[in-house]
């Protein structure tokens, strides 16, 4: 049996909250219960929203929770980073997309291996490969353009499906767009329709996989996905491309995350296929939501992990509460994360979202409690 390699991937766009902690706990327990390794990666590509203090705070929160990691920015691996990243092939130079500011992949410093903003060269290589194979095209459409053109006949849960306004363009057309902002979009039907001995014409238009937690999942690529952005107009790689490159290069075999990202998984599986890489096993877990049924956020009050930590609340109290919310114990009794490893099982985790109420936060943050 291949060894499990999982990852915790906080985004430093703000403080980590109770909902984040629940997903991190499940990801960590799944890996540790299989005697696997855990990597910590900082996903900081959304630069306008990144908070300078959030990286250190995330590390401190995870350490306080007892969710340790084997590799990360503060704990680099003893071995040289893998160079088995995106194929380094000659092709048309990119006139936009991720700038190669981090140097060649082999020159990446080990600590920088775990920080997305220091991995731009790897993403640029991947984009160049997609350009070489005409699997992407330059797109000048703004978000408003997409919303107006789609006019609602095909709207996915993430908004309107891209109508293909710029799909007639080829890679070389980017040269004529100099001075005009454009992104790079991935041609989903071209990618999904590649020759394969196991695909019929109809099945080629579908992406399907079996989720370790959510079960069988599938979608029609043109109707449900549409061509998606892999490099933004500011030159930065989009999440879909970056996370695939990262998980492949880091040897990640298991990804546990919120079930709101299932649509992203279909897109990522298409990228894995065109690069001929083995995808990890995915487990998408229910979100923590507020009493109004919406994803837990600031509108539901302040539920930052750091507030509990800085107030001197024992981490075991939060872990015990989260374990109870995940069906891993019958009460909210305080417990250390490591104590949950021997009895962890995915079958115990309920399939419904967990409703977090103000009363629950009040109980967690009560300093008079033992």
From TrEMBL:
Pfam families with a match to the protein in the record: tRNA-synt_1c (PF00749)
Cofactor(s) of this protein: Zn(2+)
Keywords: Aminoacyl-tRNA synthetase, ATP-binding, Ligase, Metal-binding, Nucleotide-binding, Protein biosynthesis, Zinc
Motif ('HIGH' region): 10-20
GO cellular component: cytosol
UniProt enzyme class: ligase
GO BP: any one term: glutamyl-tRNA aminoacylation
Region (Disordered): 73-109
Residues that hold Zn(2+) according to the record: 139, 141, 162, 166
This protein's record includes keyword Aminoacyl-tRNA synthetase: yes
EC numbers for this chain: 6.1.1.-
Motif 'KMSKS' region per UniProt: ranges: 295-299
Residues annotated as binding ATP: 298
Record text on cofactor binding: Binds 1 zinc ion per subunit.
Role summary: Catalyzes the tRNA-independent activation of glutamate in presence of ATP and the subsequent transfer of glutamate onto a tRNA(Asp). Glutamate is transferred on the 2-amino-5-(4,5-dihydroxy-2-cyclopenten-1-yl) moiety of the queuosine in the wobble position of the QUC anticodon.
UniProt cross-references to PANTHER family, sorted A to Z: GLUTAMATE--TRNA LIGASE, GLUTAMYL-Q TRNA(ASP) SYNTHETASE
Protein name per UniProt: Glutamyl-Q tRNA(Asp) synthetase
């Amino acid at each position: 049996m291949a060894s499990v390699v999982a990852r915790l991937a906080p985004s430093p766009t703000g403080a980590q909250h109770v909902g984040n902690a629940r997903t991190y706990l499940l990801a960590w327990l799944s890996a540790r219960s299989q005697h696997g390794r855990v990597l910590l990666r900082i996903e900081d590509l959304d630069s306008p929203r990144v908070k300078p203090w959030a990286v250190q705070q995330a590390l401190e929160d995870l350490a306080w929770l007892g969710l340790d990691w084997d590799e990360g920015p503060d704990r680099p691996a003893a071995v040289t980073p893998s160079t088995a990243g995106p194929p380094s092939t000659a092709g048309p130079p990119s006139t936009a997309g991720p700038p190669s500011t981090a140097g060649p992949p082999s020159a990446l410093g080990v600590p920088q291996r775990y920080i997305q903003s220091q991995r731009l060269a790897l993403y640029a290589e991947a984009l160049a490969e997609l350009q070489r194979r005409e699997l992407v095209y330059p797109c000048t459409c703004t978000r408003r353009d997409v919303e107006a053109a789609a006019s609602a006949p095909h709207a996915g849960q993430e908004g309107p499906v891209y109508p293909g306004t710029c799909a007639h363009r080829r890679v070389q057309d980017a040269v004529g767009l100099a001075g005009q902002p454009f992104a790079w979009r991935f041609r989903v039907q071209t990618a999904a329709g590649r020759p394969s001995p196991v695909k019929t014409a109809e099945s080629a238009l579908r992406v399907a996989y079996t989720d370790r937690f959510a079960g069988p999942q599938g979608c029609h690529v043109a109707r449900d996905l549409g061509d998606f952005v892999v490099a933004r107009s500011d030159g930065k790689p989009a999440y879909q491309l970056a996370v695939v490159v990262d998980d492949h290069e880091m040897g990640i075999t298991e990804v546990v995350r919120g079930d709101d990202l299932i649509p992203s998984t279909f897109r990522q599986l298409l990228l894995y296929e065109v690069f001929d890489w083995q995808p990890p096993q995915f487990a998408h877990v229910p979100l923590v939501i507020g009493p109004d049924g919406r994803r837990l956020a600031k509108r539901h009050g302040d539920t930052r992990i750091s507030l509990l930590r800085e107030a001197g609340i024992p981490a075991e109290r939060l872990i015990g509460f989260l374990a109870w919310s995940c069906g891993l114990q019958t009460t909210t009794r305080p417990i250390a994360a490591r104590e949950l490893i021997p009895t962890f099982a995915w079958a115990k985790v309920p399939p419904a979202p967990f409703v977090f109420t103000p009363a629950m936060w009040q109980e967690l943050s009560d300093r008079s409690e033992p």
